[in-house]
Amino acid sequence: MEPTPSPECPENDAGRYPETPAGVPGAPDVRDEACRILLRLEGPDARARELVDETLDALRFPPGEAALLAELVFGTQRRRALLDWRLGAVSHRPVEALSPWVRNLLRLSLYQILCMDPAPEQAAVEAASDISRRHGHDGVAKFVTGCLREICRQKAENKLPPLPEHPVRRLAVETSHPEWMVVRFCETHGWEQAAAALAASNEPSPLTLRVNPLKARREEVSERLRRAGHENELCRFSPWGLRLKEPADTRRLPGFLEGEYHVQDESAQLAGILLDPKPGWKTADVCAGPGGKAALLAELVGPEGEVWAFDRKPGALDKLVATLRRQGIQNLRTETRDALTPRPDLDGAFDAVLVDAPSSALGVLRRRPEARWQARPEASIAHAERQLRMLAVSARMVRPGGYLVYCTTTWEEEENETVVERFLEREPGFLFERSRLFAPVEVCTRGGFVRAWPGQDGMDGFFGARLRRQE
């Protein structure tokens, strides 16, 4: 049965989700709210996790429906290219020409039909029909249900159209990444590495903890968690890391409220290994964000040391302040300040400075699946220019003989090796130190940098370099 030809779907000039007609009764619908979030994620700066959390806080869905909302949003983003490929085979209009809310309603419905186990096919079709009638008209509903029923028929008869023949386009559809991104990754890092990292970017992130050495030993925390029914394993590279084998509410884990550990991916903990601060050092994190790395530095330098955490976004450090109270850290100072405008009175004041620079974040797509669709091929150039300026300004804060560590969460060479090389050309007073002197060899490149690939030993993507200012 062929789907009904696509009608002219109602558009909203502001790109917003159509409002529910006045007088329509009923509690909030999970699929409806998921579609609203997906539509907002077509904007350049929206964050899936923030939008999901905002929706759940506002609507108070029961646990099962809350889990479904998150699954629909994150799953649809992770499989978007594959869903669009399937949709394109049954729609008489190009996917990109469909009304944005209809396109996203079809995507999340197809995700349920094709990717969820067990697949709630009938429920997905009926819900999509109800939503399309509620926000559109009968023609929209006929088109939506026609497309979905045709996909259900193809699936039942094992007649889904084949994936693209061209290897690169096929990999882009299979792993659901923009084709330009796949091409660049393959050209820069090779087919095998690209395929593995892109596939890993669709896997759920494990829950990884970083034990606070001021309060507990890793083996002790591991055993307490195990006795409480939470199986875990010691991280391979970080001496502070524990990885839980099943998801858990960290606030309910033994020792969390007492400050014995912090939630942090093992790749982020590599920054502490690379910087290698000594007790009593004065250090700074100039792009601290929520402050996980700054808190680690504070733990490593100990009560006799000092850490300064800067971030340009107002309120960005609020979460860090709460972490410090919970973990009993008193040697960390916070200040809202852009890394490009440091305080002149801090020139040469630090033994070590960490520049965890904002980047294209292509190494953390499993946590931020929407970022792959918001990224632009030319963005790395702009990122690299700002990153280079951050390094140059932050370098002034390092004392003679002190250390400067640069890290990102992307695999783009333009933002990684190239930035470091350009900095060293401009700043002859700094020397590059090969990472094998400080970090496990498995995460060290031949060029002397630290790199973790997405999915490597359960980690996010990470890049790091250590520089020393000459005496």
What does this structure look like?
The chain is α/β, with parallel strands linked by helices and 471 residues long. The protein is built from 17 helices and twelve strands. The strands form two sheets. Strands 5, 6, 7, 8, 9, 10, 11 and 12 form an eight-stranded mixed β-sheet that branches. A four-stranded antiparallel β-sheet has the order 2-3-1-4, covered by helices on one side. Strand 6, helix 14 and strand 7 (332-336) form a beta-alpha-beta unit. The longest helix has 19 residues, at 138-156. The termini are far apart. Mean pLDDT is 91; it is low at 1-15 and 20-25.
Helix count, DSSP H or I runs of 4 or more residues? 17
Structural class: alpha/beta
What sort of overall outline do the alpha carbons produce when their principal axes are compared? globular
Uncertain spans, ≥5 residues at pLDDT below 50? 1-15, 20-25
Reported CATH architecture of the largest domain: 3-Layer(aba) Sandwich
**Name of the level-1 CATH class of the largest domain:** Alpha Beta
How much of the sequence lies in strands comes to: 5-15%
- Count of all domains: 3
